[in-house]
Specification:
- The protein has 278 residues and is mainly alpha-helical.
- The chain has two domains: 64 residues, no CATH class; 174 residues, MetI-like fold, CATH 1.10.3720.10.
- Helix content is 77%, strand content 1%.
- The two termini are 34 Å apart.
- It is a multi-pass membrane protein.
- This is Amino acid ABC transporter permease.
- One of its GO terms (biological process) is transmembrane transport.
- Belongs to the binding-protein-dependent transport system permease family.
Length: 278
């Protein structure tokens, strides 16, 4: 108990207490300013009812689902696997260069990455407009969701690539050679030989990147949630409601809803993992 006490104290201080405090604020009409700041009112489930009937919350939820599905479940998963598969048989210097470039996007601080993307997408002198010959194109204004999806794929693919590289390394080469000997094409080899060995890695990777992307705040630094709430994912919506709007009680209720959604996602993937083990 003496050895685990420091860890338990840290967990209680930085995880358990904030979660309980969020639950407490969620049942209050608690604002950063005004009469509700000095004397918060108990509203019970009122904040949750307001959230579930708020069109802006529904819009943020749909955007978050699209953001997670396109950038994490599809984008990072597929691109990370393709990079790992191509690099498996590539020359060592090619693997080194690609690994360095992809990892650089992952280890750079989020603020630095956002600054680079703003320079890339700038409508006046942006690099992308110069390459495409489209001066004046405002990518973050005209295509905000596509912008944050591409940004998240570029930034997060490295993790999937590293995980799939380790997973593919565990696939016996003898089975791959046997499949080629019997005339199996790439798709059939992938379905019958590779996927049965890496299915657990696929589920684990999808679980992690789904949860990370669902709670990602970086899109706010790139688009600010705009224009017209078209890139306002749930973490951004919570920030703009709680901090910018001052409605801490309402924002806490939305945070708890996000926590429940995260738990549901985690339980779904863990159930799939247990079914695979069984």
């Amino acid at each position: 108990m003496l050895f685990v006490a420091p860890a338990l104290a840290l967990i209680a201080a930085f995880l358990v207490f904030p979660a309980l405090w969020t639950l407490y604020l969620g049942v209050l009409k608690y604002d950063l300013a005004g009469s509700n700041a000095a004397a918060p009112q108990f509203v019970g489930l009122g904040n949750y009812r307001d959230a579930l009937t708020d069109p802006r919350f529904a819009n943020s939820l749909l955007l978050t689902v699209a953001f997670v599905g396109l950038s994490a479940v599809l984008g990072q998963n597929v691109l990370g696997f393709l990079l790992a598969a191509v690099l498996r048989d590539a020359a060592s210097w090619v693997r080194g260069v690609v690994n360095a470039v992809v990892l650089l996007a992952w280890i750079l601080p989020g603020t630095v990455v956002v600054f680079l993307w703003q320079a890339l997408l700038d409508r006046g002198g942006g690099t992308l407009n110069a390459l495409l010959g489209t001066p004046g194109a405002a990518w973050t204004l005209d295509h905000p969701l596509a912008t944050i999806v591409a940004f998240n794929i570029w930034r997060g693919t490295a993790f999937s690539m590293l995980l799939y590289s380790a997973a593919l390394g565990a696939v016996p080469r003898s089975q791959l050679e046997t499949a080629r000997t019997y005339g199996a094409g790439p798709l059939r080899t992938l379905r019958d030989v590779v996927l049965p060995h890496i299915r657990g890695h696929v589920l684990t990777n999808t679980l992690l990147i789904t949860l990370w992307t669902f709670n990602d705040f970086a899109p706010y630094m790139l688009t600010g949630g705009g224009p017209d709430h078209r890139s306002e994912t749930l973490p951004v919506y919570v920030y703009r409601t709680s901090i910018e709007g001052g409605a801490l009680g309402y924002g806490s209720a939305i945070s708890l809803i996000m926590l429940i959604v995260n738990l549901a996602i985690a339980l779904f993937y863990l159930r799939l993992l247990r079914r695979r083990s069984a």
